[in-house]
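Q: Is it fine to ask for two folds in a single conversation?
A: Yes, each is treated on its own. Send the first.
Q: Here.
A: Result:
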Amino acid sequence: MRPFGGAMNQVISPNPSPLKVGINRLRTYLSKPHHLILLILGIVLSISTIAPIVSIFLDTFRVHVGSVDSINTGKMSGYTFYNWKDLFTGVLRNVNFYVPLKNTLLLAFFTCLGSILYGGVFAYLMTRTNMKYKKYLGAIFLFRTSCRSGRWPSCGKTCSTAPR
């Protein structure tokens, strides 16, 4: 009697290596066109965002001919920390660093506060009141206020909310 119903010379391989499993999963994932497009766009957008930031950061260490850093350091090329030292300890440190930092933090704080208040009031109105045009406003803000059909439109799963 043959084991597992196969041929006599059949070799049963042990568990596949994690590398082969990973490669097979990657092939399966990339076999769908929308996944491949998403991956390519993600790589392009990442490179086009990160490359300029890295370039600007590295440029802060370079000495530029005819600029303040070359005049004050006496160098015509190379690298220096002069720009960073001047940013934090120079005469114009308040104008160049601390005032913009304060403005940025204030803008971020008040933007978050306004968003939380606006979103909280709107969410309360959508869930706790019976206001006019509730369905229209929910569609604008992409809220699903009720599940009248018994199924979610996006995935077809049964929802726990009873139809009204």
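Q: Second one now.
A: Result:
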Amino acid sequence: MLVTCTLLKSIKFILEASRVHMENCKPAQHASSCRRQVIFKIEPNMNLTPTAIIAIVGISVFAAISCNNTNQNASQPTAQNSNVPADIFKTLIDSATKARNNAYAPYSKFLVGSAVLAGSGAIYTGCNVENASFGLTNCAERTAIFKAISAGEKRIKAVAVVTDVPELTAPCGACRQVIYEFGRDVDVIMANLKGKQKIEKISKLLPDAFGPGSF
């Protein structure tokens, strides 16, 4: 880190000597892009020295690589933000994605897949099942949870929800209540088919929840 900072200071000194002004850490205008960018201000009708040109190219490449790494890390929280092991984390998302293909959604056309990591370590999948009587529709999360409970599970550790929309889909209120029933520290993993991911604790998605301890 010290070497990098020293190098950047040296490059900045070279640029300033060549009348090229550099502004570091200017906020990006678009949230989807890198949050920091480097701006060069070059005075018109000036002759840049070869050293200055090389410095500009070098720092531009450095900034581009840094931005790319930042964006990748932001869109891929992985298991570092979760209590779920990295390999299981990926398996949950893959399982939910596969289960989504079985969704019965002739009315909304909104396909949802879910995968539940139970206390035993087993994974149970589910999809949304709609009904002509809309109130009887069952969400993917509850389908997966009910499958786990009917198989003898008593606790769940994580729930993955996968959809195909730009903004990640969080569980509905009813599903949040059901998730909380079987674990107050459950990791809720939200993902879409583009690879965007987010993790939240059920206790955050359902604050001041009514649960087994409320009686």
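Q: Anything structural to flag on that second result?
A: Two points. The radius of gyration is 25 Å. Residues 20-38, 70-75 have pLDDT under 50 and may be disordered.
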